[in-house]
Amino acid sequence: MQLRAFGRTGMRLSVLGFGCGAVGGLMVRGDPAEQERTIARAIAAGVNYFDTAVLYGNGESEKNLGRVLQKLKPANVAVGTKVRLPPSEFGRIADAVTMSLEGSLERLRLDRVDIFHLHNPITERGGGLALSVRQVLGDVVPAFERLRQQGKTRFLGTTAVGDTAALHQVTDSRAFDSAQVVYNMINPSAAEELPTNYPAQDYGRLFDHTKAAGVGVVGIRVLAGGALSGSAERHPIAGPAPEPIGSAMTYDADVVRARRLMPLVNEGFAATLTEAATRFALSHPAMGTILIGMATPQQFEEALAAVQKGPLPRAAFDRLWALWQEFSGEPR
């Protein structure tokens, strides 16, 4: 398994991370024996980053990951978790952040996590579930730093969703060590300029900002919540079709658009659309580790096999660019 330097942290993370989210569902609703077997297999294959959150099954993902890691006792694995602050707690951010991490550590059976990510969207002025840039830099960062000083987390992170300008501002502040960035074959805008009138959120070459700030990148929505399988069918333990992030306004529209990328498979660049999407995400040098959600051990094996094939060839990107041009001007 290839290890990549993770920003300025000094950590070297496996290019394939283990996503413990609710969309795939294995670590939330899966069979305990399958959870243990899949994590053991991942560790044996060289995976050393495990990503979870309170939000995933209201703590169930953290509990299950903690149970398995305590039993397996692997050496040198990194664990990241997240805090999602409800609007009712925006007036007491420091206390809410502290309580959230202490609960996570108890469920994970750990004294500290390696990365503690903010899970709320970030916008210029806030509103709804979103925190404003001022709240993030003025309230969240000091609370996170206190937890770091107390030895409860090594590094600080954000989930880079929200308004593009706000995400750039927070990244440029260098207050955070990690950013979870949307990057996939439907929306490549974290890396490059989109075609004119492209129907997706434009993240404005966010990778340029993470690189300049020394921020490590965790690739999220690599499969667009499953849409980049090209199938709307979902496994019985998978979560419902997720609210799309940075792509079409409905999941079904993402699936339709994903199917239009099938020439990559038909022309021999990859065996499946899922493989193409996985290899696309790890192709960019800014990427530290990519997260693939899964419902079954077999889906982990498929992700591992795709990663072992390495990045897509340059010709595949040329083909993708031509396909993306066809999306220009379509309604989002």
TrEMBL record:
SUPFAM superfamilies: NAD(P)-linked oxidoreductase. Residues 16-323 form the NADP-dependent oxidoreductase domain. InterPro entries: AKR, NAD(P)_OxRdtase_dom_sf, NADP_OxRdtase_dom. This is Aldo/keto reductase. GO terms for cellular component: cytosol. It comes from Bradyrhizobium zhanjiangense. Pfam families: Aldo_ket_red. GO terms for molecular function: oxidoreductase activity.
